Amino acid sequence: MMNKRSLLCGAAVAALAWNSPAVAQGAQEGTYANDEEFEQVDVFLYHPKRGDIIVSGSRSDNDPYPEEYTGSATIIETNELRQRQVRDVADVLRDVPGVAVASVAGQTQLRLRGSEANHVLVLVDGIEVSNPFAGEFDIGTLQAEIGSRIEVLRGPQSALYGSDAIGGVVAYDSGQFDGASAWIEGGSNNTFNGAARIGTSGGRWNASLSGTIVSTGGEPNARGGARDIGRDGYTLSGKGALEVVDGFELRASGRFVQTEGDFNDSDFDPSSPTFGFVIDSPGTRFENEAAYALVGARLETMRGDWTHDLSAQIADIARDTFGQFGRTSGSDGDRLKASYVSGLRISDAHSLSFAADWERERFRNDDPFDFAFTGRRSIENVGLAGEYRFDGERFDFSAAIRHDINDRFADETTFRMGAGIDASEDTRLRANYGTGIKNPGFFELFGFFDGRFIGNEDLSPEKSESWEVGVDQRLAEGAMTLSATFFDSRLEDEIFTTFPAPLYIATPANRSTLSKQRGVELSARAQLGKQLTLNAAYTYLDAQENGVEEVRRPGNIASAVLTWTAPGDERSTTLIVRHNGATDDVAFTDPSFAPVVERLDSFTLVNFNAEARLTGQFRVFGRVENLFDQTYEQVFSFVSPGRTAVIGIKADF
């Protein structure tokens, strides 16, 4: 498996690719087009000025500007990631309205508006990166590269992207890069992290290589435990560009990710006083290995008004877990996908997009136990999608529809409609309605884990119906922007984990009642003078199933980010405050093995970052996370890290 993945990644890195001028970046910082304007105003997190586009907001080149988009979107720009010293992408996503992040047993889950972790489509440089076996992406394995950018679309996106986007889309783009840049840092818990990137370009081509490394000795995560939970990993990636002739371009990208770390298990001895709690588990660890590659070609016709894009991508992901006496479980999943996307710009106001996707997912449950299913299964899907967009002076409208043909589940049609109107020069109203679908994953269908989990081959797809209304208000001649969105979603045939008596072995099933998620998202950004910016977000969520609160969905989440930047970007400091409200979780502390609901307390974390330019090419930086050493749990009896500090140096050439 290592050789195959290395070959896939190496072939893609060696290939050349193109990036459209709309997302071309500048030198050194890897910034996107028009990012100089952002640097002059210190880069806002929410609702950036015209000039940036929401790339994932359309399947074709008819990408909407933020003020034209009728849904809920957040863009996190390159400079914002640098100032916050983002290492794990999961951390900065905590500052996005509607997003909840939780880490447990070596895996980090991402939820949007109360959806499940496998309801969020994650794209990295246009590649779908979820594990076909697990049905979701471990967002904790995604490290922020130099020059990267992130988009988050909230609400159902199945009408454009199909099954995996029922809750939303997170699109990470490493961007085009010119120059050379690197940083290293070290600090608490024997932490050592680093990143480097080099890129170059000519008149018709560009190429870049990037790498990141993370290593930490960690600290105990069991209550009263002494075993440090460490983690090591690295990412190698490359992308490139070649415009063969005017209007015809080729592109390719590749990525290899290796992650390994420790984790603690729960005590399953009913006679033990710590039964059901996380305990020190010597020898338990995991290994993840993933390779991704994409190649594509783009053709412009009708003087660029009609574009055609053909691409193929592959993902190959393996995960193994180990115990004190050797390997305990393993899985291997791969995805092969081909897409044709066409965009037609009829006029300045009207555009059409069409997409055709073919996808095959396969998995093998490579479990060392003879009684586990170890064969290979596959599922194929064909999706056909179309979208119409109208972008007027004061009114915008979009409508999308998609039909999926699946060889295991019934064919499904999803759609989405949205509209936005500028009620005044400073006030925008918007509304969206859409449906979504999520097919069961391989683990839910066929999974087996150490006698504690058995899959269910009779599962049905989950279906959702969602709507939202929102308003964006500019104040003080644009120095402040306030946004408010109310959302409501209904999920039918939700897949949940049940523990039937008498053995109480976990198995998935479809609910017979509706799962309901509704809430309010508030965001604000303000330019407080020339050097000071404030970004804030708050989410209220009411997620219930048959009147019972769903687990790991905090009712209140808030964040505030205050950044001061000296003239000329010579120095900067950032203060980050994040609050996570109380939430429920499931525990197995009853000796009968019956599940018990436990309440997790709320917590508030404070981080502080600072950096300063030493010379024209070198910067020194440092940060303290969990400044007040808050003790908290995101998952029952898994203690999260305490206060940590790091210092480092960065060089740009």
Automatic annotation (TrEMBL):
Keywords: Cell outer membrane, Membrane, Receptor, Signal, TonB box, Transmembrane, Transmembrane beta strand, Transport. It comes from the Bacteria. One of its GO terms (biological process) is siderophore transmembrane transport. InterPro entries: Beta-barrel_TonB, Beta-barrel_TonB_sf, Plug_dom, Plug_dom_sf, TonB-dep_rcpt-like. It is found in: Cell outer membrane. GO terms for molecular function: siderophore uptake transmembrane transporter activity. Residues 188-627 form the TonB-dependent receptor-like beta-barrel domain. The keyword Repeat does not apply. Coiled coil: none annotated. Residues 1-24 form the signal peptide. One of its GO terms (cellular component) is cell outer membrane. It is a multi-pass membrane protein. It holds the Pfam family TonB_dep_Rec_b-barrel. Residues 68-169 form the TonB-dependent receptor plug domain. Its main location: membrane. Belongs to the TonB-dependent receptor family. This is TonB-dependent receptor. The lineage of its organism: Bacteria, Pseudomonadati, Pseudomonadota, Alphaproteobacteria, Sphingomonadales.
